[in-house]
Specification:
The complex is a heterotrimer of chains A (164), B (92) and C (558). Helix content of chain A is 27%, strand content 21%. Chain A is built from six helices and eight strands; from the N terminus they run E-E-E-E-H-H-E-E-H-E-H-E-H-H. Chain A has an eight-stranded mixed sheet. In chain A, helix 4 links the parallel strand 7 and strand 8. Chain B has 92 residues and is α+β, with helices and mostly antiparallel strands. Chain B has one domain. Chain B is 26% helix and 32% strand. The radius of gyration of chain B is 13 Å and the shape is globular. Chain B starts with a strand and ends in a 9-residue tail after the last helix. In chain C, a hairpin with a 5-residue loop joins strand 11 and strand 12. The longest helix of chain C has 22 residues. In chain C, 56% of the residues are buried. The chains are: A alpha/beta (164), B alpha+beta (92), C alpha+beta (558). At the A-C interface, helix 3, helix 4 and helix 6 of A face helix 1, helix 2, helix 6 and helix 9 of C.
Chain lengths: 164, 92, 558
């Protein structure tokens, strides 16, 4: 698994401790919702950033008030057919004002990266030999969009009526 | 149970049947017939390999009846699949 | 009709190029069938019983003759010379190859058509009244809104992986010809006291194994808010619709589970946050789309009713056609003409390539170069001068497209059934053919009056059997095909689900059973009652007796 963020292959500074019994005292960590809720105070006091992984049945509204304490929200795709996280991503960006890293993890098809990116994801955990290239290809499929979404791209409708 | 192996060809989607020489034919009559389950399983394994090799998709076994040198699918669904629609406008 | 601008063209061309790459990756083995399947489905490509099947959208049923000729070309070049018009106003090709599909999609793109989202768990082709913009009884032209919703839903990044498929239909007439009550979202246009248009929104209708009549979630919404309201519904569905069981994943199950009031509360809360945002449709965009649907330059004509009646008196066959196959048009001297794809013994909804071309020629000559596809699987010429009626009728009769049975018993909906479909339990088309051959007397058909028969080959209900006045459902009983009858269904503004008549019948007994039902109705009907009126008045009992008591007796004698 590699992490592609803003189109580039990066080292993932976050240690995934979602399955662990204890949370290491320092370093950036990715915790589960339960861990976040159980250890909220200690996690918020850490000097290093914390990320929270939400399963696809965990609505981000639960952490909406904590978002300024959270550096990464990782949204799980248990199968590529489970599309809930597209809505979660838009809500996080557009309604809860989350500006940190929004990461897609799990069963992600190349063809879906574009949709995810439009919904506000900026980081993707990917398989494959050259994930950054795959990501670039997936991004180049389309250059026009009908809908406003979380990526700020102008919809065809806006472009049609843009005042010159 | 007497069975043959069927699938759809990946490229053009046509219904095909596994033949004795390891090829795929659009005619059910060309099928290699498995008289017992053990042999049928071997056919299925061949079909799964052909699927991995992007030759066919969805291989599965169907029950057939052999009469006077012909091979016919037992289930209505499989008979229609093998012989084409029972209404006009079907395959020429 | 709507014409693509540079943005529409670019998007569709990019989609074709993307699919071409995906097909190449599949053929090379880079993608497995599991990975490829959702990609091909979202481009309308199924693997059916015999081969790949491509479902092409006819957005809200509107076709230009240029498009129809392209559909004919595709049928000829890439398929077996015919296509099948469906209950979702689409056309299906039954024999395409995967290798050819990118070329077919490119050919469609040339005439501003696509197969995008004609399958998959996403928003499907938006359907509408086939008489939209022309019907005398219409309040508002739904096509403007269909086009806006079409664009909104196409490649919508948030809603490409909904729990299940999602169907939207719109009617602008109080007489619902679009079956909006059996759609995931049904939109009915109304006028307020000031004559301003708005939508009533129905939600949670559907057929399949759990048929439900949609309920009104909101009785009025201003048109500029319709997209944000749809987004609120889609979002609530995407978040809370079931994903653990494919048979319980449609929105109707969610609405039923929560109750309409709780569901409405969720949607209204979501909408409160979306309202007035980016999805509010600017006036200038509404006007831009409206211009495409502005009425054509109709000639100033006088009503030719009297002249046509005289022609009908001289030529009774023409009279029967005029009575059954035409409908009232907004403009004086014009009429709407239905082309019946239900000739005696014909496969409902099928049309061969040669006749597609001939129909295109006729539409150029008689109907301003445009036609429609109806959800009852017929074609429509929406702008015919009444003075041309007789000539058009003669031309259509020559093509076998003038059977005077629109809305009558033999104007049956039938899904492809087990002759083509991988999901079917039984063959629908032969049953339709049997019934059609059993009821050939035009006088009798017209005496029976309006009566819909809808046939599905399995409980997925593509043939709308739940909402047929007489519904026929194919079932499998120990490897044999049987047919379950329902009575009293309707898909119009008084939509209702049919009631089960009794035990399923073998195919050979179906036409006689239909005849007994019809004779029972003719015996019982009061004055002007339609079949449905009589059924609603007398209930199922007499019909049950007519079909089963009698068959039992025949059986005993035999």
């Amino acid at each position: 698994m590699a992490l592609v963020k803003n189109g580039e292959l990066v080292n993932d500074p976050f240690r995934d401790v979602t399955g662990a019994d204890t949370i290491p005292p320092d370093g950036a960590v990715l915790v589960s919702l339960e861990q976040w809720q159980d250890h909220c105070h200690s996690l918020q006091r850490r000097p290093d950033p914390v990320g929270v992984l939400l399963e696809s049945d965990q609505h981000p509204e639960i952490i909406a008030d904590d978002l300024d304490q959270i550096a990464v929200v990782a949204l799980a795709f248990p199968t590529f057919r489970d599309g809930r996280a597209y809505s979660y991503a838009r809500l996080l960006r557009e309604r809860y004002g989350f500006t940190g890293e929004l990461r897609a993890v799990g069963d992600v098809l190349l063809e879906q990266l574009h949709y995810m990116q439009r919904c506000g994801f900026d980081a993707f955990q990917l398989d494959g030999e050259d994930p950054a290239r795959d990501f670039a290809i997936a991004q180049s499929d389309f250059s026009v969009w009908y809908q406003p979404a979380s990526d700020g791209r102008l919809s065809a409708l806006r472009l049609r009526h843009r005042r010159v | 149970m007497t069975q043959v192996l069927t699938a759809n060809r990946l490229g053009d989607g046509q219904v095909v049947f596994l033949t004795a020489d390891g090829n795929w034919s659009t005619a059910i009559g060309d099928s290699l017939v498995a008289a017992d389950d053990a042999f049928a399983e071997e056919l299925l394994a061949l079909g799964q390999r052909a699927e991995r090799e992007c030759e066919v998709i969805g291989p599965y076994l169907i029950e057939v009846r052999q009469e006077a040198g012909t091979i016919e699918a037992v289930a209505i669904r499989e008979a229609i699949r093998a012989n084409g629609p029972t209404v006009a406008y079907g395959p020429a | 009709m709507y014409r693509y601008d540079e943005f529409d063209h670019r998007l569709v061309n990019e989609r074709v190029a993307q699919f071409r790459r995906q097909v190449a990756r599949r053929l090379d083995g880079e993608l497995t069938e599991d990975q490829f399947k959702p990609l091909r489905l979202m481009n309308g490509l199924y693997l059916q019983l015999h081969a790949y099947m491509l479902r092409v959208n006819v957005p809200y049923g509107v076709l230009s003759t240029r498009q129809l000729r392209k559909l004919a070309m595709i049928a000829r070049r890439y398929d077996r010379d015919y296509g099948h018009f469906t209950t979702r106003q689409n056309i299906q090709y039954n024999w395409v190859s995967l290798e050819d599909t990118p070329d077919i999609l490119a050919a469609l793109a040339e005439v501003e058509m696509t197969a995008m989202q004609s399958s998959g768990n996403c928003v499907r082709n938006i359907t509408a009244d086939q008489y939209a913009g022309r019907a005398a009884d219409e309040l508002e032209d739904p096509r403007v809104w269909c086009e806006l919703i079409r664009q909104y839903s196409l490649l919508n990044p948030e809603f490409a992986y909904l729990p299940r498929k999602f169907k939207i239909a719109v009617t602008g007439s109080p007489n619902d010809r679009a079956a909006v009550a059996v759609h995931d979202i049904g939109l009915r246009m109304h006028h307020d006291d000031n004559g301003r248009a708005g939508f009533e929104v129905l939600v949670g209708g559907g057929q399949g194994r759990t048929p439900v009549i949609g309920r009104t979630i909101r009785d009025w919404i201003e048109p500029e808010h319709i997209l944000s309201y749809i987004e609120a519904i889609l979002r609530v569905y995407n978040l809370y619709g079931r994903r653990d069981n494919i048979y319980k994943a449609r929105i109707k199950i969610l609405v039923n589970a929560l109750g309409i009031d709780k569901f409405r509360e969720l949607v209204e809360t979501e909408w409160a946050a979306l309202r007035g945002g980016e999805l509010t449709i600017p006036e200038e965009e509404i006007e831009r789309i409206e211009r495409y649907f502005a009425p054509p330059a109709w000639e100033t004509l006088f009503d030719q009713g009297e002249a046509m009646r005289a022609q009908a008196a001289a030529e009774p066959e023409f009279g029967a056609w005029l009575e059954a196959n035409t409908a009232a048009h907004k403009a004086p001297g014009y009429m709407i003409v239905n082309l019946s794809l239900k000739a005696t013994g014909h496969e409902p909804g099928d049309l061969d390539a040669d006749r597609m071309d001939r129909v295109a020629d006729l539409a150029d000559r008689f109907s301003l170069g445009e036609l429609r596809v109806s959800h009852r699987q017929n074609l429509v010429f929406a702008d015919v001068r009444q003075q041309d009626a007789l000539e058009l009728w003669r031309a259509l009769r020559e093509l076998g497209l003038a059977t005077p049975n629109i809305g009558k018993l033999t104007d049956m909906i039938a899904c492809p059934g087990l002759d083509y479909c991988a999901l079917a339990n039984a063959r629908s088309i032969p049953v339709a053919q049997d019934i059609s051959r059993h009821f050939t007397a035009v006088d009798k058909l017209h005496a029976i009056g309006d009566l819909t028969i809808n046939i599905s080959g399995c409980m997925n209900a593509c043939g709308h059997h739940h909402v047929g006045n007489i519904g026929i459902l194919g079932v499998d009983k120990q490897g044999q095909e049987f047919f379950q009858l329902t009575l009293g269904g309707a898909s119009d503004q008084h939509a209702a689900l049919g009631d089960r008549l009794g035990r399923a019948l073998p195919q050979a007994e179906v036409p006689a059973a239909i005849e007994r039902i019809v004779d029972c109705y003719l015996d019982l009907r009061a004055a002007d009652e339609t079949f449905l009126d009589t059924y609603r008045r007398v209930g199922i009992k007499p019909f049950k007796a007519a079909v089963y008591d009698d068959t039992a007796e025949v059986r005993r004698v035999a």
